[in-house]
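User: Hello, can you help with two protein structures?

Assistant: Certainly.
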Amino acid sequence: MEITANIVEVYEILRSEHRNPHHILGMHEVEVDGKKAVAVRAFIPQAASIEVIDDKNPKRTYTMKKIYNDGFFEAVLLDRKKVFRYRLNIEDYLGNKWSTYDPYSFNPYISDFDKYLFGQGTHYKIYEKLGAHPITIDGVDGVLFAVWAPNAKRVSVIGDFNGWDGRRHPMRCLDNSGIWELFIPGVMERDIYKYEIKTREDYILEKSDPYGNFMEVRPNSASIVYDINKYQWKDTEWMQKRQQTNPLNQPLSIYEVHLGSWMRVPEEGNRYLTYREAAHKLVAYVKEMGYTHIELLPVTEHPFDGSWGYQVTGYYAPTSRFGTPEDFMYFVDYCHQNNIGVILDWVPAHFPKDAYGLIRFDGTALYEHADPKQGEHPDWGTLIFNYGRIEVKLFLIANAVFWFEKYHIDGLRVDAVASMLYLDYGKTDGNWIPNQFGGRENLEAVEFFKHLNSIVYQKFPGIMMIAEESTAWPNVSRPTDIGGLGFGLKWNMGWMNDFLRYIKKDPIHRKYHHNDLTFGLIYAFTENFILVLSHDEVVHGKGSMINKMPGDYWQKFANLRVAYGFMYGHPGKKLLFMGGEFAQFSEWSEARSLDWHLLEFEKHRGMQEYIKDLNHLYLKESAFWEYDFSGEGFEWINASDANSSMVSFIRKGKNPKDTLIFVCNFTPVPHFQHRIGVPAKGKYKEIFNSDHSKYGGSNVLNEGIISADHREWDGREYSIGLKVPPLGMTVLKRVDE
């Protein structure tokens, strides 16, 4: 049977194994009997007949001949010598007809420079090339698909638009880059798709798009074509201000939120709030409560609700549970317009084993390590990224850039940093592989963090990179040029563990554990710390914050108020998980809404009012936050009164007039004639008291002005006498004469 194409290539097409189908399919200049002509070839198994239509002169048509019954067609156009733009009119065996431009008539779109930067690991906007992008090429609308799968025998795009048939749209592999690309005319936004990958062992895999911008609602797992560049942002003022602001010397009071369980809609089947609904309800609440930022547990796409988002299958896609990518942009935009920052929980430490995800993506361990001793978390049942592979490192660094660039995010809280830094994390002896020097440090992950942080801080001044790091690894929040990992901030897990251990004890025993209360100041300025009482502390049998507190009903609330008060006075930025602000009794569950009905009760309303007033005081008084990371902003007055379980200390701002004095009493015994040393003579006034009756306290307050006596106390020349409430905190400030 005569055919102008190479017969070996034809059989590669028929077997769906051709790595460059454009070389044979589409329109090509050929020679027939020594004369120039044009040949058009198509492989469409469902087609009964195909016609070639000249796009400029639709009356010029050419009938294609079926060369192989599998669906391989060719037309040799003896009257044409040059390639031209054309369409294919197709009819299948059921009489269905359609017209399309030929995907195999378009030149490569991804440039040599793109491939070079990708191979170097410096194409920080590679997400604009890989993935699915609605574009127009030579006046033809369609979608450009591109995916990295270097070890695949063949990669195809499959979807509703081709009956999920991997033979229909095989992609071309671009040289040695491992990138496969195909422009498919006529595919539109909201079309669903996956990549069908034929491995070297001839297994067929169906994978969602690692760079896809939108995904189906679980349990479905296909990617969805979506144009994320259409949204009109209205947060210019916020973004300009952010560029000129150093968050380290600003107030930072973070409300940590799981979007699926903050509030539900019970009258509509207990459904989730959408991104747009949450924008209005959550922002109004956060503004009233005085928080500066919302930190969202992961909203990247994930299959299992019970993972809280920490097992990610769509790193470039906000979860479709709550709406579209544009809806999430609206959420961030609305926060910014209301002067609220947005921090995302980000999970570069591991990924799940769902078959449609990154696991053995092209039939080989591509994103993960091949050896389970390196590539698997035994405790979590997840896979560890291979931070030594350039393209994998770029996938993650570009992902961070993506959220800052495309979604205007203000910070990333990087989850499980310790699990990345230590090769033996969660592993028993003999089940991990040491580094080249025989140590347990993951040198490739260290280099990844330095690279990541240097790039995002360079590109986005004013953002925050926050490490959830639970060990004593040095210089986590120090610049890379002095040997640090380059993060801006670090969660203070040591303080959290010590403080919760202390506050859970019966007050009668606290004097024996006073060091748990004060030890944090030994290392408070070694990192840029955020003090956290996060979601991790109110799950898995640990009890809610209010239920950690000892004592009777009144004492539980008083204990919690003084706990929060001490936390706000202590150096470091602040984070509190949702529900803790109104003393929810039940543990947090992702499966239901917070217990908002508790606000019908006075004690819970009082706690909510307390956090609201504490936040607003925090915002107003710069001594709370101007010198969070420097010893010049803190001074003990008395740290050693273990018998009374009391501490007193000073917080200082840039202006000496802003100095605040904190006194905290961790027993239910009130003190009506307590004396403390003060930094200077003059008059002092109580500006905040956790024991106020409006918060549910007993009203042991300091009313009026307190004059300092020239009487040495606590090693200071001047001192004052004051009332200290039971299980309470008082804050004093010097007032003008």
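That covers the first. Now for the second protein you mentioned:
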Amino acid sequence: MVKLTAAATTSIPRIIIFALTLIYGLAGLFARDPWKNEDAIGFGGMWALQQGKTLDWIVPHLAGRDTSLGAPFPYWLGATLMDWFGPLIGMSNAARLYSAICFFSAALAIWYATYLLGRRQEVQPMALAVGGQPGRKNYGMTLADGALLIFLACIGLAQRAHETTPMMAQLMGISIVLYGTVRGLDKPWQGGLWTGLGIAIVALSSNLTLSLLIVSSTIIAVIASNAKLRFRWTLTSTVLGLIGFAIWPALWYLGNLTPEWQHTALEGWRNVPEMRPTPSIESLGFLSVNFWAYAWPIWPLAIISLAHWGRVKEAGQWRAPHLCIPLSLFAACLIYVLFRLEANEHDLIILIPSLSIIAAFSLPILKRSLISFIDWFAMFSFTMIALAIWIIWLAKITGYPESTAANLARLLPGFQAQFDYIGFIVALLITAVWLAIVRWRTSRAPKEIWRCLIISASGTTLMWVLLMTLWLPTINYAKTYRYVSDRLVSIIANTPGCIDTSNLGPAQLASFSYFTKLPLRDDPSCNLMLTHSSLEAKAYASLNKKTIELLWEDRRAADRDERLRLYQITPAGKE
């Protein structure tokens, strides 16, 4: 058990935490292109649906490529938002509203799940002899604020939470499952509805492996928990979950898909992204190296929480809902990542909701020394990062410091920096807010248990907003295919025929399809071939007794390894 006074559980003013979440979630969503790699692929699937026919909606795929992108919900939502808002704000901006919906839904679900768990009897602070202990509602709200701040403070979440990837829908679905399971402890009908909805979202946005792991982990959490859920929750969540699993296969039959397309859809549901039957050494290696920085400061707080509450008998130890439910879902997500063929940073995002809730329960028991370390580490780190962002931006605009400006010109040849008044003012404002928060934190000794998180959450927001204002044109120039696409269009001009893209990666195909509107398809019979491998082009020509002529060679300015080549293909002996 813990000892706390009511003063330690004073909630953060609603306007502050609302503004922090809103600024973080919206920054970087607009005024940019789809970025290589996963962001462009996700957008490309949405774009193909928005431009396509019934088949494209039933089996999401990139334009010109008959390979399933996997479960359809992210692409349905993105394409619908493009239909509604694309004419007003642009197609790529409208598609990224999908990311905002997923992010804010996940944040809200994490807050409410933690709030409900924080009100439970087994986690309440000890009653003080003279009174003055916090009330249940205030204590729950403070822990919920802490969970949200921990979620926002996650270093690895910044860029990945603003991209149009299926993992954003998975993040939302898992967070809703967490909330629904907790809500079902006191309101079974309502909780069952939310749990079933979350399972349906996961089933329609991920492969079968993750979907079944989430279902299994939820069942295990319910069985293991010392707070039993009622039959009404079980019935409601089961019915809705089964409907979620049945929706996509039902569309295969209602849409009269050919056996080939049904096989393509089923294979996408099974193995997009690719899985292995045993834990992947590559994924294990990636996780062991990258997880600690990605999930800072969540993982140390989660370990402290588990170490304390796991041995508190009065709280039910490991069977208590505030540990049992999120820990079970975390284990399922961790198993999924380990069985990925080759995990990447986007996969790690599904680990964060459960860890954020667990970590929030460390706040009442943190030692002053650890609080000071987290605060000063965050303060120093984010101040240095902000200073570096400002200095490099100054070099881009003024040419001073000269060495920095020269390095930028070498890394991004052809980039012309322009002064953006709006971005500059926003950057100044967010920097001023950061300095005010640092001054508030260092000039007094607040007692609130969330005090060690406000610097970390504000720091990630500062870093991301500065990048998405001062550096946005630079980052966009480095990550977009727009300029390469424009040059490709000028080369092809009035050349008739189609372009074979069989050797292009999905991000390249998605980007060229959006930016060029050229007839791109995976078809070896086309008279033009766009590829990044001259060896593959020559092998194709030799095998099929054709001749190839290099018409164009180019690359993105920031990518020295990539070479895009356009070949004219003619049968041997013809000119």
